[in-house]
Design goal:
This is 3-hydroxyisobutyrate dehydrogenase. By secondary structure, this protein is of the alpha/beta class. Helices cover 43% and strands 13% of the residues. The strands form three sheets. The chain has a six-stranded parallel sheet with strand order 5-4-3-6-7-8, with helices on both faces.
């Protein structure tokens, strides 16, 4: 489907300062037309698969060609770079590791904005600095496109089952169009406000997640040292006031739960390096807003230490193993 223009940037020969939303987007009516997807890593891969399962033709690319194999076998069209994705479709989702990656994918030599169509909807599900989301939105606006930030929560398991939570920031007029696609990959799609507010919500969530995982790991480790069976302790915690997501859904102790990274030598899941990155974003925003976050600061330091000790590529729940090794080294 051709790109749907919300309004010309040129009225009577004069350039408008912003995209005119007077013409309400009808892109949401173009169901089952192609969707671009950039970034097919641990999260992006299952997200793209869910779009395919819902009948959307997917045009995808990744900096690592081997990451494209699975979705290609399911019917996705693979192209060489983000600019080619933008040339072939007017709805694009990106899922990338960090702010520099997002900047390169959107504004680099082969970036989306090199060939973006006017009226395109660009949804970024990466977790990045809210300020970068605002910069990308401004750059997209200059090209007549709309950028929305829509980071996710739920991890690889929720990405695979289509039960992610999306926190969406951007023009409210475009939320319906974005939600059409996001509901194929998530159980909850929440509008948070203008561009950057989705990132703000995600950063707050991940700071709490890190603090909770460290607390759960400390608690489980203490209980084991006191002679409690870890499965019994987890059962008690999960029927008591100490219950939390890290204890009842993603327990960090090997052998307590099946189907979580702790049962697979902490492989897969959400990497320690990525958690350290997200906590760094929380620290930066806390500093800029003069917000005290003492536990967030300690969590950041712990995950940075873990990265320096060889845990960078292990799931963030490996903080339990890290604490055990610290204890044994004393």
């Amino acid at each position: 489907m051709a790109a749907v223009l919300r309004g010309s940037r040129y009225l009577g020969g004069k350039c408008c300062k912003h995209v005119d939303f007077a013409f309400v987007s009808t892109r949401y009516m173009a169901s089952k037309t192609s969707v671009g997807f950039v970034g097919l890593g641990n999260m992006g891969n299952p997200m793209a698969k869910n779009l395919l399962k819902h009948g959307y033709p997917v045009i995808a690319t990744d900096v690592f060609p081997e990451s494209c194999k699975e979705v290609q076998e399911l019917g996705a069209q693979i192209v060489d770079n983000p600019a080619e994705v933008a040339d072939k479709t007017d709805r694009i989702i990106t899922m990338l590791p960090s702010s520099p990656n997002v900047i390169d994918v959107y504004t680099g030599p082969n970036g989306i904005l090199k060939k973006v169509k006017k009226g395109s909807l660009l949804i970024d599900s990466s977790t990045i600095d809210p300020a970068v989301s605002k910069e990308m939105a401004a750059a997209a606006e200059k090209m007549g496109a709309v950028f929305m930030d829509a980071p996710v929560s739920g991890g690889v398991g929720a990405a695979s089952s289509g039960k992610l939570t999306f926190m969406v920031g951007g023009a409210e007029e475009e939320f319906t169009a974005a939600k059409e696609l996001l509901t194929c990959m998530g159980a909850n799609v929440v509008y948070c406000g203008q561009v950057g507010t989705g990132q703000a919500a995600k950063i707050c969530n991940n700071m709490l997640l890190a603090i909770g995982m460290i607390g759960t790991s400390e608690t489980m480790n203490l209980g084991v040292r006191l002679g409690l069976d870890p499965k019994l302790l987890a059962k008690i915690l999960n029927m008591s006031s100490g219950r939390c997501w890290s204890s009842d859904t993603y327990n960090p102790v090997p052998g307590v739960m099946e189907g979580v990274p702790s049962g697979n030598n902490y492989q897969g899941g959400f990497g320690t390096q990525l958690m350290a990155k997200d906590l760094g974003l929380a620290q930066n925003t806390a500093t800029s807003t003069k917000t005290p976050v003492p536990l967030g600061s300690l969590a950041h330091q712990i995950y940075r230490m873990m990265c320096a000790r060889g845990y960078a590529n292990k799931d963030f729940s490996s903080v339990f193993q890290f604490l055990r090794e610290e204890e044994e080294g004393q």
